[in-house]
């Protein structure tokens, strides 16, 4: 095990086809056009851009009876048309200039719906000024102009082409994927802004569980495949290898096929690795030893749960650490791959590491490659945290008996203290609850725990 590995563990913490009713009137809104606009806004909020892009509005009859209502509906029709244009761009059905069309259409609605003064001469002895305005379309267009501009920055199709890739292959894959997941999260956007998708860029990703590391790794893998290189994906267990193989084929089958090599024996002949080879570090170390030529075309090594390279802290050991066979094989695999393939990028994934910046320096020194340490705390979900607590009075009696050399004979009532924690909340004052965990007191004991 090389000296100085500075790992510190972090505590665990079908395409839908829009089927439109020929008469989209519904209870609550008799106007067909406005009803369709309401439905479209709901789909927009849910990210169903593919459904919206299939919407036809030219044959929808609003049924307006007055000139004022007709003018309002014409403005709403323009807003609806802008939403359809935006959705088509979001799923790759139109060119980047479509966003300018959306903005100009909404701006035109705002101008037409705004206050219009008209002087009525000859109607009365004193001049009369008539003020005409359409507040509904004006307010909606104003909100959409701002919100769609913000959403556009988080569209999958807005990701720039990574340097060093075949832009045609990358853009084709992005367009297909946008029909399934058109939006990226803010942490995805922050990671992409570092340039880690470019060929020649490596990253240590130590973000918490549930922050979309799989999505980011999929993007990096796709960029590598679009550069003409293959990918090596290391997962710590056989079960995870199978799961990763399935997940990657679900997402990347249009670009390449992921294949597990865990069942491959050293007696079997392999002329080349698959485009996406998935295996455990132990299997990879064996192949690196007996068939190093297989790894010459690998452009990316993804190491999932890479904290497994770290030795465990062991106070009983003379060195203070204990390295098991798994961590040794993982470290040797990583170092030997770097010696055999000096041009490959690395993507190291773990939610268990708290000192990513320190590890970045260590890896750059070991590999001679630049790394980006990415630890973005935001996550889209709330987390329920809890601990067991006891009454201070009951614990005082317990510790008093221990101090007097008496075997404690104290029964206590355990409580669970639960709190909701969410990184997207601006304030840490999240709700909490204190609940008993037992209907009756239970004996509290003492002793020593020996780790083997």
Automatic annotation (TrEMBL):
Keyword ATP-binding set for record: yes
The keyword Nucleotide-binding is assigned to this record: yes
UniProt-listed PROSITE patterns: HELICASE_ATP_BIND_1 (PS51192)
InterPro entries: DEAD/DEAH_box_helicase_dom, Hel308_SKI2-like, Helicase_ATP-bd, P-loop_NTPase
Domain Helicase ATP-binding: 194-371
Keywords: ATP-binding, Helicase, Hydrolase, Nucleotide-binding
Protein name: DEAD/DEAH box helicase
């Amino acid at each position: 095990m090389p000296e100085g590995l500075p790992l510190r563990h972090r505590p665990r913490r079908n395409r839908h086809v829009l089927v439109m009713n020929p008469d989209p009137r519904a209870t609550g809104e008799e106007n067909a056009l406005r009803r369709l606009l309401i439905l479209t806004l709901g789909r927009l909020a849910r990210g169903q851009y593919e459904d919206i892009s299939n919407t036809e509005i030219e044959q929808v009859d609003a049924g307006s009876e007055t000139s004022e209502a007709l003018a309002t509906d014409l403005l709403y029709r323009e807003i609806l048309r802008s939403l359809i244009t935006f959705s088509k761009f979001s799923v790759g059905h139109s060119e980047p200039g479509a966003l300018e069309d959306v903005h100009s259409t909404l701006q035109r609605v705002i101008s037409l719906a705004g206050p219009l003064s008209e002087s009525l001469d000859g109607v009365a002895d004193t001049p009369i000024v008539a003020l005409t305005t359409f507040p509904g379309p004006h307010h909606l267009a104003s909100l959409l102009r701002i919100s769609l501009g913000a959403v556009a920055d988080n569209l999958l199709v807005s990701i720039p082409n990574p340097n060093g890739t075949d832009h045609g292959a990358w853009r084709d894959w992005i367009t297909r994927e946008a029909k399934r997941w058109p939006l990226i999260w803010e942490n995805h956007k922050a990671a992409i802004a570092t340039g880690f998708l470019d060929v020649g860029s490596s990253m240590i990703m130590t973000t918490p569980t549930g922050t979309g590391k799989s999505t980011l790794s999929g993007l990096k893998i796709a960029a590598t495949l679009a550069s003409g290189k293959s990918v090596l994906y290391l997962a710590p267990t056989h079960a995870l290898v199978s799961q990763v193989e399935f997940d990657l084929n679900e997402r990347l089958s249009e670009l390449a096929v992921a294949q597990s090599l865990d069942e491959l024996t050293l007696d079997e002949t392999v002329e080349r690795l698959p485009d996406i080879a998935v295996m455990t570090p132990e299997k990879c170390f064996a192949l690196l030893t007996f068939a190093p030529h297989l790894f010459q075309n690998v452009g990316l090594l993804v190491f999932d749960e890479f904290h497994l390279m770290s030795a465990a802290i062991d106070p009983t050991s003379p060195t203070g650490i204990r390295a098991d066979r798994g961590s040794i094989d993982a470290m040797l695999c990583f170092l030997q791959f770097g010696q055999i393939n000096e041009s490959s990028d690395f993507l190291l994934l773990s939610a268990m590491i708290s000192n990513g910046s320190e590890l970045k320096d260590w890896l750059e020194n070991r590999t001679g490659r630049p790394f980006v340490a990415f630890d973005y705390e935001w996550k889209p979900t709330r987390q329920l945290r809890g601990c067991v607590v006891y009454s201070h009075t009951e614990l005082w009696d317990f510790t008093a008996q221990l101090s007097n050399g008496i075997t404690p004979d104290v029964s206590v009532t355990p409580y669970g203290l639960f709190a909701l924690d969410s990184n997207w909340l601006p304030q840490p004052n999240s709700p909490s609850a204190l609940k008993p965990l037992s209907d009756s007191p239970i004996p509290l004991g003492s002793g020593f725990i020996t780790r083997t």
